[in-house]
Each structure stands twice: as C-alpha cells, then as structure tokens.
Structure of PrcB C-terminal:
Amino acid sequence: MTGEGPIVRERTDLSFKTIDIDEGPERVRKWIEKNRSEEAKKVFHVNGKTYVIIMLGQKSTGGYHVEIEKIQLAKVVSPESKAGSGTVEVTHHVTEPEEGSINIQALTYPIAIAELSGVHDYGFQFSTPLKSEELKENNDQSVENDSDSSTQQASDGAEVELVRPEELTPEGNVKE
C-alpha cells in the first residue's frame, strides 16, 4: 500500500430547490409531459443545472405524494486517490392513501422535482425507505445482487436504484 491512513466515506449535503413543473426548463417540461403516466426516476443536465425527477406515474385517485427529503454527495476517499469516486444519494418519501380513506376520484400524476446548481456528473442513487410490512416480508428472503439490475436493496431495507444523468434534446427527448 503506497498511502497511509484509512479509507473514509465523506458525506456532503447538496443544496437543492424543490420546483413545480412550470418552473423547470422547457426541455424538462416536454419530457415530463411525454412520460408522466410512467413511474420514473431521472436525472437531467440542462442549462448548467441538474434536475432530479421522481414520478409515481398515473394514479386513479388523489392521496399520493412524493417528496425529495435529502440529496447528499457520498465520496469514498482513500490515501492513494486523495479524491475518490462519488455517488449522489437522493432520499425520498412516498405517501399513499390509507386503506378505506376517501379521496378524490380523478387521474393524478404525483411528481417531485429538485433543481441543483451546476452539473453533477455522478451516479444518482435513489433510496425509498420500505414500509414496516414490506421490511418484514423482505427479511425472510435473501436478496441477490444482479449485476444487470440497477435496483437493489440496502442493508437498512430501503430499495435503492442507481441512475446516470442524461441530456435532453430541445424536443424533450433523451439524447442517444
């Protein structure tokens, strides 16, 4: 080993602003309009900023909500690298209507958008904490890491999905 000292995992909170669809750039708005019926977790670089988008897809009632709670840059720093590789961790919470609750009967498209200054060219790891009943079910099953899959389960029971940032065309399509 050439360097001395421990390998350290550093976490830094990234400042972000939650925005409405109409506050985002036109490219992002066009992409959302084309894809809002689908569940998606996306990261786009547009006009020197990074947009983190979580869509729950089309729902047949009200009562659904998604909120981005925290965005952190996690870096593993070793003595050899002095810098380390990083991942941006996005923690979000999804609320669903309670069983038996009375909700508006209308199509809804729950979405959360976070705007970050600058271009963050790391992988973005989305973490959704599991509900207690889902945690109990999953404790009885062993989770295999599939190298082809971008969705895994963290040690705390959260579902984790890794997403790479993408660029959008002026028409709101993902660049190839």
Remarks:
- The chain has two helices and eleven strands.
- The chain has one domain: 8-167.
